[in-house]
Amino acid sequence: MKNFQCADCGKWYGWKESLYNHRNYECGKERQFACPQCPYRASRKGSLKTHLFTQHAKGTRRTVIAAMFA
Ligand SMILES: [Zn+2]
Ligand SMILES: [Zn+2]
């Protein structure tokens, strides 16, 4: 049974703690990491890093990418 609903996105959670975690770490923070070189947005910093390395490594020096995550 899910009794807790997020007021912002409408997702339901069975535990108050789950909703609490969602609102703290997920809600409104999804895809907050925007790629500076294309419209891609990542939900996690690591995902954006992987994206940059795999998609833009040729046009961007690795040191530049690395600096973004320093
Ligand atoms: Zn939410
Ligand atoms: Zn990109």
TrEMBL record:
Record PROSITE patterns: ZINC_FINGER_C2H2_2
Keyword Transcription regulation: yes
The C2H2-type domain, residue ranges: 4-31
Annotated compartments: Nucleus
GO cellular component: nucleus
Superkingdom assignment: Eukaryota
Any one Gene Ontology molecular-function term assigned to this protein's record: DNA binding
Keywords of this entry: DNA-binding, Metal-binding, Nucleus, Repeat, Transcription, Transcription regulation, Zinc, Zinc-finger
Keyword Chloroplast: no
UniProt record similarity statement: Belongs to the krueppel C2H2-type zinc-finger protein family.
Identification of the protein by name: C2H2-type domain-containing protein
